[in-house]
Amino acid sequence: MLGGAQRMLYPQVFIRGVPVVLLASLLTLAACTASIRADQNLVPVSAPEQRLTFPEVSLLPPRGEDWFINKSRAVQNPEISTIVQFVKSSRRRQPPATDPTQALTIEAHVWRVDVRGPVESQAALQQLVRHETETLGLRWRLLTSEVEPDNSRDAMCVRYRYTAEDSQVPRFPGSTFVLKIAGVRCVPPNQLGYLIDAAYSQRHLKGQPDADVEAEGEVFLRGIVMLTPPRLAGANTSPDRRIVPGERIGQWTLDMTISQIDDVISGSPTRSSGVADPRPGPDFRSGFVTVLWPGRSVGAGTNDTATGKAVCLIVWSPEFQTLEGVGPGSDHQAVIKSYGTPLTLTTAGPESSRLIYDGVGMAFVVKRAVVQQIYIFRPGDAKRIWKF
């Protein structure tokens, strides 16, 4: 046992380091939208011609009658942050339908999905989306699935369409519903650590006609524009985004155990729980365990099975930087300029090298001249972690 840390390690599917979480969440969201009650959480879309701008994306709301912004934004997945969700409903001031023939639900959303490391190509992104159909549970039966490249944007994207049946809707036992989802999945320009998913969906009782929302949904998808959030200047980075070699990453320190880190993160608004990394890298020493919190873009590692005390901390979000302004997404020359020649280089993975600065207490995973991840550890501890 890792000082109580074992309680939080659960398996998760990864494609080249990217967790597969989205299709089941998409289907669940389409199914749960019907339970949204008519209350203060629904705000009418009053100006669909005005763009809404967020750090990650700019978008136009869906155009058409009876669209609302859902302020509750509830998605039960720690890796997913709802940027915005829209609900189409003429029943805003009525209770949810009790007749399954009236239980039509229509929604549109934009999600930020945190992942460990970048998706390297459009083909890899297609593979990721296709693989999601293999991870569905018994609740849904997939009827159709289409995934194809989307080259219409200034970002690496794919388009997808799914049709599935859901026969386990709690409020309507014995009824089968049809869910249709169309969306786009993108890797934002020059960004690490997350994907953008935008989609629209509808659910209706099997045998009932589809709602005529494709035109409104496609206009919504065409209006999505990826943005590149400004990088933080190192000296101006807030303390909870600062990387301090040999000491801490943000609020997480090397004095904490894996369980303590998990307790802090699980009690935060993201409610993200740690997951064991199934492939930490070929250069790690045998028995070394790394735990990741994709919802916060941080991780920790230990080989201290008695206490579970963190031996290293990991970060892969470009929002975190050192005092010198180096962070994930930086050019490797910025690392050399700031810290000099590393003590050693190891192989961290395909086309990836690990630059280890044992005297500083920091290591950088670099791929194609770009920093992917940063590790901090106590100076002199590098050989406890990596083989060299």
Describe it:
The chain is mainly β and 388 residues long. The protein folds into 2 domains: 14-226, 3-Layer(aba) Sandwich (Protein Transport Mog1p, Chain A); 232-385, protein yfey like fold (Sandwich). The chain is built from 6 helices and 24 strands. It has helices spanning 22-32, 122-131, 214-222, 258-266, 332-339, 382-385, and strands at 14-15, 18-19, 42-44, 52-53, 57-59, 67-70, 80-88, 105-114, 140-150, 156-166, 177-187, 194-205, 225-226, 243-244, 248-249, 252-253, 275-276, 289-293, 298-302, 312-315, 344-349, 352-357, 362-367, 370-377. The strands form 5 sheets. The protein has an 8-stranded antiparallel beta sheet with strand order 3-6-7-8-12-11-10-9, sandwiched between helices. An 8-stranded antiparallel beta sheet has the order 17-18-19-20-24-23-22-21, with helices on one face. A hairpin with a 4-residue loop joins strand 18 (289-293) and strand 19 (298-302). The longest helix is centred in the N-terminal third of the chain and has 11 residues, at 22-32. The model is unreliable at 1-21, 34-38 and 268-272 (pLDDT under 50).
